[in-house]
From TrEMBL:
Organism field: Rheinheimera tangshanensis
Name used for this protein in its record: ABC transporter ATP-binding protein
InterPro entries xrefs: AAA+_ATPase (IPR003593), ABC_transporter-like_ATP-bd (IPR003439), ABC_transporter-like_CS (IPR017871), ABC_transpr_LolD-like (IPR015854), MacB-like_ATP-bd (IPR017911), P-loop_NTPase (IPR027417)
GO CC, one annotated term: plasma membrane
Record keywords: ATP-binding, Nucleotide-binding, Transport
Entry GO MF terms: ATP binding; ATP hydrolysis activity; transmembrane transporter activity
Span of domain ABC transporter: 2-232
Keyword Signal: no
Length: 232
C-alpha cells in the first residue's frame, strides 16, 4: 500500500512562491481502490507527480509497501527504477506506441527492466488474458477500439506488478458501461495483485463506486466515505 503523511509542495520561491499541496494525508491499502476528486487547479496533478516521483515534494513523508521512499528527501537510489517498477500509470489517453503490436506495448516495460524478451512477452500475455484482450495481442494499437486500448493500457500499467497504480481520468472518454467496466477491472486487478489504486477523476459515472474518496481543494485533502456501489 501507500501512506502519505504531511505532504506539501511549494512551486517557486520568495515572491512567486505558491503552496500547491498543504499537509496532505492519504493512505491506500493493498487491494484497495480510492477516488481522488477535486476541481481544476486543486492540486491533483501535483499530488500525482509527487507520488510518481516526477517532481520533488517540499516536505512530508511517503511510504510504499514497507519502504519509506521520501522523508524530506528521496530515500531511493534510482528514481527511474522506482517509476518503472513500483508505480503503474494509467492515463485517459492510452498512449500506446503506434509501431509496436499490443503484446510488445505491454512487454516493453518488463523488457526495459531487464527481463528477457520471452519472459516479458509471457508476462504481457498473462495480463492481456486477465483483461480479456489476449485475442488482440498481435493487433496494432490503431486497430483497437477505445475500450480495447484502455484495457491494454491497464495491462501495461500492471505488467511489472507495481504496488501502486495511479490512474488519471481513466474513464473520461468512455460511455457508462465501458467506464464501469474499467473500474471493475481496476478493482479486480487491485485484489488479484494486491495493488493500491488511486483514481483521479471527476467522472460522475464512476464516483459512486468508490468506498473511500479523497477530496482535494486548494491543496488540502479531506477523506470521505463513498457509496461503494457494487460493480456487479
Ligand atoms: P489540478 O491537477 O488539480 O488541475 P495542479 O496540480 O495542476 O492542479 O495545479 C495546482 C496549482 O498549482 C494550480 O494553481 C497551478 O497553477 C499550480 N501549479 C501547477 N504546476 C505549477 C508549476 N510548475 N509552477 C507553478 N505553479 C504550478
Ligand atoms: P492539468 O490540470 O491537466 O494538470 P494544467 O493546465 O493545470 O493541466 O497544467 C499543465 C502543465 O503546466 C502541468 O505540467 C503543470 O504542472 C504546469 N503548470 C500549471 N500551472 C502552472 C503555472 N502556474 N506555472 C508553471 N507551470 C504550470
Amino acid at each position: 500500500g501507500i501512506i502519505i503523511e504531511g505532504l506539501s509542495k511549494q512551486y517557486g520561491y520568495g515572491d512567486t512562491a505558491f503552496l500547491a499541496l498543504k499537509n496532505v494525508n492519504m493512505h491506500v491499502a493493498p487491494g484497495e481502490v480510492v477516488g481522488l476528486i477535486g476541481p481544476s487547479g486543486s492540486g491533483k496533478s501535483t499530488l500525482l507527480k509527487c507520488l510518481g516521483a516526477v517532481i520533488d515534494p517540499t516536505a512530508g513523508r511517503m511510504t510504499l509497501g514497507d519502504e519509506v521512499i521520501f522523508d524530506g528527501a528521496w530515500h531511493v537510489k534510482d528514481l527511474r527504477a522506482l517509476r518503472r517498477d513500483k508505480i503503474g500509470f494509467v492515463f485517459q489517453a492510452p498512449y500506446l506506441i503506434p509501431f509496436l503490436d499490443v503484446l510488445d506495448n505491454v512487454a516493453l516495460l518488463p523488457m526495459l527492466a531487464g527481463v528477457d524478451n520471452t519472459t516479458a512477452r509471457k508476462q504481457a500475455l498473462e495480463l492481456l488474458t486477465a483483461l480479456d484482450v489476449q485475442h488482440r495481442a498481435s493487433a496494432m494499437p490503431s486497430q483497437l477500439s477505445g475500450g480495447e486500448q484502455q484495457r491494454v493500457a491497464i495491462a501495461r500499467g500492471l505488467v511489472n506488478r507495481p504496488p501502486v497504480i495511479l490512474a488519471d481520468e481513466p474513464t473520461a472518454p468512455l460511455d457508462s458501461v465501458r467506464a464501469l467496466a474499467v473500474i471493475r477491472m481496476l478493482n479486480d486487478m487491485a485484489k488479484r495483485f494486491e495493488t493500491a489504486v488511486i483514481v483521479v477523476t471527476h467522472d460522475e459515472k464512476i464516483i459512486p463506486t468508490f468506498k473511500r474518496i479523497y477530496h482535494i481543494r486548494d491543496g488540502e485533502t479531506h477523506e470521505e466515505v463513498g457509496e461503494g456501489r457494487a460493480l456487479g
